[in-house]
Design brief:
The structure is a homotetramer of 354-residue chains.
Chain A lengths: L9 E6 L4 H10 L5 E7 L9 H4 L10 H4 L14 E4 L3 H13 L3 E4 L24 H9 L4 E4 L3 H10 L7 E10 L11 H4 L10 H12 L2 E3 L2 E3 L4 E8 L6 E9 L5 H9 L4 H4 L10 E4 L7 H4 L8 E8 L5 E7 L3 H17 L5
Parallel strand pairs in A: 1-2, 1-3, 3-4, 4-5, 6-9, 11-12
Antiparallel strand pairs in A: 6-10, 7-8, 10-13, 12-13
Chain lengths: 354, 354, 354, 354
C-alpha cells in the first residue's frame, strides 16, 4: 500500500461534468479529503462558461461552491490533471477516453464503453482489486502512456456486491429482477408521462449488462486473462417511480446448498481492502444485513453510509433455486459516482498514480 | 350449458359491501346484464344506513346510483338473495361465509379463507372450470344446503393466466417477482409514508399464496381430489407506487424447452369456456400479447377489456430457466371483483344456480 | 341552429396528429357520432408512414384501430377535409394554420398562436358562443376563404368555466393557484427527475395566459370588438405529480358580496347552448358541485362525464376576498382535445360549416 | 443572554416519543451539542419496552443508537428531566402537558392544544422572541411551577417566516395556497389510495390554524397581551404527493405598495436572535432567496441548512394584491421538531432553564 496520504490535495478533472452523472461526481467529491476538482470538461457548447452557468443543475440545492466558478473546458487533454473521472455519454466516450489515456491520463470511467475490454479492469474495490493487474497488460498491449479503469453499470454493482461473498459456495445460477430508480437514466431521462403511477418493464441493454458485467467482475484473473464466472445470470430489468436506489430481488442456486446461517454469515462479515485501508469513501461495512421483514427499501435505506453501503434483507430459502433475498444500493452513488471515486482511492492507495 | 339467459335479472347480494373490495364489486357490477345488486351486507356499525352514507367511497366518482340508496344489512343470511358475493375481510369471513353456505346461499368469495380447502374450487373460469365438480363433494361432505366457490389472490390470478397455456409443455419450475399496486391492500391499506417514492419488498403471506394457490389452480382433478401442479414456484412480492395493476416478471423452466414460436402461439391462442359462451365479463381474448419492447405497463395496459384481459410482453429466452416474460393484470378487477363475477357467470351458465 | 345531423359522417383532419395533443384528439374522437378522422398531418419526418408507426403512442392501450392505418400526410392543405383540428406545436402553428385558413379550411385550433388575435374567437361553447360573430370580421379583414377558431389554454378553460356563472355578481378580482398535471406538458414534457416527489412552482407563460385569456373569454362582444372582463386576475401556476386533471384554488371578490346560496345556485344551474342542443361532447351539466369536504380530486373526479364536466367544491367565504372554492377539470380533454371538438360541434350546429 | 454553554449536556425528555413527530425529534436531536435525550415517554402500551422495539420506526435508516436502548416510560412526570419536548397527539396533549407543567417541567410543545392560549407563547425565535415575556404572566396566572411554550403548525411556520420581514411595510391582507407534504400527517397518516397520483384539496382545521396562528405569531405584545396582526389571512390548504416540504404560494397586499427591491432586500437580510447568538439549530440565514425561475422546490430545497432555512422564490408583482411569491419549508423540521428544538435553544440561551 501507498504511504499515508499526508494532506496534500490531488487535483482531479471531470469529463462530462455538466451532465447528470457529472453533477453527481461534483456532489460526491465535495469535501473529499484527497481529491480536489480543479478541471471540468464538457461539450464545446459549454466550454468557456462558468460551471454554474453551463450545468443545468438538477440535484438538490446548488452546485458546490468550490466548483461553481470553474471555467468549463472542452474535452481535450491539454492542461487537465493526471487523474480524470469520466462521466461521458457513451456516444462519445470511446474516442475521448482514448485520447486522454493516450495523453497519459489515468481515466477512471463510469461509461460503459471499455468495461468489457479484456485488458480493462471492471473494478469494484471490495470484490476484485486484483483485476488492477490487467493494467500492466493494458499498458503493454495498447501502448498508452495513461490508463483506463471502469466501474460497472449501476444495477450490476449492487448485484455483484451481494454475490461476491457467496462465491465461496460456488454460484451456479442467478435469477434477478430489478426495480430501478429514475435517476439511473440521467436527465431529462425518463419522461414523467412514462413513469408516473407506472412501471416500465424494460431498460435498454440493461439486462445484457447485468449478465455479462457480473460474470466479469466475479471472474478470476488467470495468466492475465479474466475467466468469467461460469454461472448463468438472468436479469429482468424494470423502471419504477422511485428517485434513488435500485432494489433487486435475487434467487441463487449454488453448487450445493449451504446452510442459511453460513450464507448470512458471509454476507454480514463481508469486507475488503477499502475497509482494511479505510479509504475515504469506503463504508465501514460494505453490506448491511437488515433484519426487519420489509427491508431494504430505497427511500429509507439507499443513503446508508453516504450511499456507499449496500443493504440486504429477507434472506430465505427459495423453492426453486437455493436461496432468495433482496438487495438495494444507491444507483448514482455506489452505482456510479461513488463507485468511480472509490476506484480512484484504491488506485491511489496502490501507488498507481505518480 | 344452461339455456340462454332470457333477460331476467338475477338478484345478488354483497357481503362486506362497504369496504374497498365491496366497492369494487359495486363498480364492476354497475350495468351488469344478468346480475343486479339488491342486497348489501356490512358490519353492524353500518347496518341500517343508506349505502351511500355507510360506505366511505374511495373509488373514482361516486357509488353507482343503483345501489347508493340500498339500506345496508347486517351480515346475516335472512332475506339475502341466493347468490352472494363475499368481499369479507379474512378476519371474519370464515364464520360468515359458513353461515351463508349453511343457509343455502351460493357464496362466490374473494376471501382467502376457504381457498385451500380440498373441497372448495379455487376457480379461474378460463383455466379450471372442471374444478366446479368439487362442489358435489363439498355438498356431500359438508352437508351445507349452499356452496362456496373462491377466486384466487390478486397476483395469483395474473400469474395463473400466464402459466395455464404453458402447461402443455410441462412446467417444471417458476421464479416470479411481483410489482404490486397499492389498491391490492384495501383502504386505508398502505400508508403513503411507506410507499411514496419507495418500494416495499414484502407483502404479508403473499408469496405463500402465490406459490400454493397457483399449484392448486393449475392442478388436475382426479377422483374428486385436486392433484396440485408438481412444479416449484418461487415468488418475490413487492409493493410499488402504482394505483392499479400488478406487474409480474416470470422465468419458467419446462420439462423440455419448447420453441419460442410455440410458446408464443399457445399464449396468443389461449381461450376458454368464458370466451366460448361469451359470458358477459369474459374478455374476447383472455391473454393479449403486446409486441412493443416495453410493455405491458400498468397505467397503460391494466384497463384493457374492462380490466379482464391479462397482458403479456417481452417473451424471450432465459439464460437460467427456459423462457422469461412479463405479465400484467388489473388486480382489483381480474384479480378480485371481476374474477368473482366471472366465476358467478360460469356458475350460472353451468346451471348451478337454481 | 343547423338542421338535425342526419347520420352523415363529417370528415375531419388532424394537424400535428402524432404528438401528444394529436393523440388525445384521436382518442377523444374515437366513436364520435358526427366526426370521422380521415386525414392526419404531421411533420415531414412522419409523412408517408402509417399513423400507428409514425406516432409514438403514449396514451393508454393503443391508437384507435380506425385511424391506425391512415397514412400520415405532410402539413399541407392539399386533399385535407374542410374541418381541421390543429394540435400543432406553437413553434410552427402560426404559419401552418394560416396556410390552411387561406386554403379554405375551418381550423379549430388548440394552439396558442391566434388566441389573442382580436378577430379570432377564443371559444368556450358554454360561455361565449356569441364570440363566433368575430368570424365575420375575421373573414372581412383577413380575406381568408377559411377560418380560425381557438380554444383556451388548459388551465384557463377550467377557471373560466367556474367564473362564467359568477359574472352576474360582477367579478372584481380573482386570485388563483393551480396544481397542474404533467399531461399538460406534452411528451416527453416534464422530466421525471423534475417532478417525482416534487412540486415545480413555475410553468412558462402559463400565468400570463390564464390572466389574459380569461379576460377575453369572459369579455363582451361590442361592435365587433371584445371588451375584456375588467377584473384583475392573478395566477400562481404549479406543476404537481399527477397524471391528469388540473386543480385550481380560487379566491374571488365581487362588486358586492352575494349570498353564498346565490353563488351556489348559479354554479349548480349553469348550462349553455351545448347542453340545450345536446351536442355530442357536451356534458349534461358543465359544472358539478361536489358536496364532500375534500373534493374535487384529480384522480377521482377529472374523468366525470368523459372528462368534459368541471367539478367544483369547498365553496366558502374568503377572509380576504369574498368567496373561495376549488375547481378541477381534465386538462387534456376539457382543457384541450375535448374543448376543440366541442367548439367544432358548436360551429357545425351553427351551420358555419358548409 | 445566558453565559456560554460550557460543554455540559442538558438532559431532555420526549413525550410521545414513539410516534412520527417523536421520531423526528429523535432524529433531529441526534448529535445535538447541548441536548441529550435521556428520557422517552409514550403510551402505556409502549411503556417498559426498549425504544427500538416500541417505536415502529418510519424515518430513513434506524433510530439513533443513542436512544434505541432507552426504556420507554409512561407519560408521567416522575423522574423525567426538566426540559421536555412534547410530540403528544392533540387528543391527549392537554392533560399530559398540563401535568408536566404543574410538576415543574419546561414543556416545549409541538402540539396545537395550548397554542392559542393568551398566556402561552407561540414562538418562532427569529420572529417573536419577545413573546417569551408571556411566561411571567403564565406563571402568575396559572400557578404552575413549570411552563409551556409552543411552536406553530407546520405550514404556519413557513408562512410566518416569509411574512415577518414584510411587517415593516404594513401587511394588509394575505391569500395563500399550500401544497403540503404527506409527512405532515403523521403515521399512518394519509392513505396511499388517497394521495398517489392525486391532490386532496382539504386538510382538517389547517386553514383555520394558518389564519389565526399567523396573526398571533406576527402580533405585538402590549401590556402582557398579544395584539394579533390586523391583517386578513386566507388559506387554501392542499395535500400533494410529496414526502417532505410544504410549498406555499403567497399574494400579499400592503398598506401601501413598496418597491420590489425593498421587498427583496428585507427578505434577504432577515435575521434574528438565533443567528446573532448562533444557536446550534439556527440556520445562518433563516430565509434563502433563490433566483432561479422555478424554485423553491420541495425535493431540491427543503433540506437546505438541515431543513431549518426557509426558501423563497419568484417574487413578482401581483395583478390583484401587491406582490406574490413562493415560500417553501421543511414541514417536519422547521415546521415541527426543529422548530421546537430551536425554541428550547432560545429558552436556554435566555437563562429560562435553571
Amino acid at each position: 500500500m501507498h504511504e499515508n496520504h499526508a494532506g496534500k490535495r490531488i487535483e482531479v478533472g471531470i469529463l462530462g461534468a455538466t451532465g447528470m452523472v457529472g453533477q453527481q461526481f461534483m456532489r460526491f467529491l465535495a469535501g473529499h479529503p484527497w481529491f480536489e476538482v480543479t478541471w471540468v470538461g464538457a461539450s464545446d457548447r459549454s466550454a468557456g462558461r462558468k460551471y454554474r452557468e453551463a450545468a443545468n443543475w438538477r440535484l438538490p440545492e446548488d452546485a458546490p461552491c468550490t466548483v461553481a466558478d470553474l471555467t468549463v473546458q472542452g474535452c481535450k487533454p491539454g492542461n487537465a490533471p493526471q487523474l480524470i473521472f469520466s462521466a461521458m455519454d457513451s456516444s462519445v466516450a470511446t474516442e475521448i477516453e482514448l485520447e486522454f489515456a493516450k495523453a497519459g491520463h489515468f481515466v477512471v470511467s463510469n461509461s460503459k464503453n471499455y468495461r468489457m475490454e479484456p485488458d480493462v479492469p471492471l473494478l469494484v474495490p471490495e470484490i476484485n482489486p486484483g483485476h488492477l493487474q490487467l493494467l500492466a497488460r493494458q499498458k503493454n498491449e495498447r501502448g498508452w502512456s495513461g490508463q483506463i479503469v471502469t466501474n460497472p453499470n449501476c444495477s450490476t454493482v449492487v448485484l455483484s456486491m451481494a454475490l461476491a461473498p457467496l462465491k465461496v459456495f460456488g454460484i451456479a445460477s442467478v435469477v434477478v429482477t430489478t426495480m430501478q430508480a429514475i435517476s439511473g437514466a440521467g436527465y431529462p431521462g425518463v419522461a414523467s408521462m412514462d413513469i408516473t403511477n407506472n412501471v416500465i418493464p424494460f431498460i435498454g441493454e440493461e439486462e445484457e449488462k447485468m449478465e455479462r458485467e457480473t460474470q466479469k467482475i466475479l471472474g478470476e484473473l488467470e495468466n492475465g486473462e479474466i475467466q468469467r464466472l461460469a454461472a448463468g445470470i438472468s436479469a429482468h430489468c424494470n423502471r419504477v417511480p422511485v428517485v434513488n436506489g435500485h432494489t433487486i430481488t435475487v434467487s441463487v442456486r449454488f453448487a450445493s446448498k449451504p446452510a442459511e446461517s453460513d450464507v448470512m454469515s458471509v454476507l454480514e462479515s463481508f469486507s475488503g481492502i477499502p475497509q482494511a485501508r479505510q479509504l475515504p469513501s469506503a463504508p465501514p461495512r460494505p453490506i448491511l444485513y437488515l433484519p426487519e421483514c420489509d427491508r431494504p427499501q430505497p427511500r429509507r435505506d439507499a443513503e446508508r453510509d453516504r450511499g456507499m453501503a449496500v443493504s440486504i434483507g429477507r434472506l430465505r430459502s427459495c423453492p426453486v433455486m437455493d436461496y432468495k433475498f433482496v438487495v438495494l444500493g444507491h444507483n448514482t452513488i455506489r452505482g456510479a459516482a461513488g463507485a468511480a471515486v472509490l476506484n480512484a482511492e484504491l488506485i491511489y492507495s496502490e501507488g498507481l498514480l505518480d
